[in-house]
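for the writeup, i need someone to sanity check this before i put it in the appendix. the sequnce is what the collaborator sent (i think, or maybe the updated version? ugh). structure was predicted straight from it, no edits. if anything looks off just tell me and ill rerun, i have time this weekend
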Amino acid sequence: ELVMVVGDVSSTLACATTAALRDLPLAHVEAGLRSGDRRLPEELYRIATDAFADMLFTYSADADANLEAEHVPASSIFRVGNVMIDALVQMLPAAERSGIVEQLGLQAGQYAIATLHRQSNVEDETTLRGIMEAFGQIQQRIPLVFQVHPRTRQSLERFGLYGEVAAMPGITLQDPMGYIDFLKLQKDARVALVDSGGIQEETTVLGVPCLTLRESTERPITVTEGTNTIVGCDRDNIVAAAEEVLDGGGKSGGIPELWDGHSAERLVDVLAHHGVSRR
């Protein structure tokens, strides 16, 4: 009766396209997110998927407004909240029991975390080198756990940077870990330096200052209401923003409306009472 897709990855668009070609009703969860930067593949996936979708499930008022500006009828837009936060709320008790912080020799509130995977950040040598130089300065102030995405590892090795970063005494290079352990690392971190949209959301709910190493975000509510700050990819800007947090600054923020752990319930309620609909 209905094909449901989530998020903004290539498989999201592939599935959405297939549903459209087979004339199947399509629902998109996390609809309406826009960064305004069409150089990002994810932005194109979001726009195209929303164009195909019949039912668009959003998590914030700005997402609703983005869709309305693209002439999506209001009757097709359903604001239910952030389903990813449902997972966070459900798994937080298990994360609290994780021993990952102690296993890495860290103390709660006394370390930073970093992730990096966006093509624009890791495929350009000058950009990646500048970010690594920023990490090098930050690790002199506070231990830094750098979870290294496979694409990022390949680029670090290709540009001859991996050995340099591994030799920095304050950096721990960490293979990608399971959700529960990484959730615990996020919760107890002093600051997060990332280019991940999901971590922007999670740190907002966890109350952890987040520095986003991009020029824009498709999740502006994490900036206007949450703990996120867009700092770009310039080395000096990254270091300055991190220093501000470590010196007692950083955003405290709040949790956006409907990011309460019950978004999936509201989504199912829409399907149960509204039924499958077509635009």
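The longest helix spans residues 83-96. The mean pLDDT is 96.
thx in advance!!
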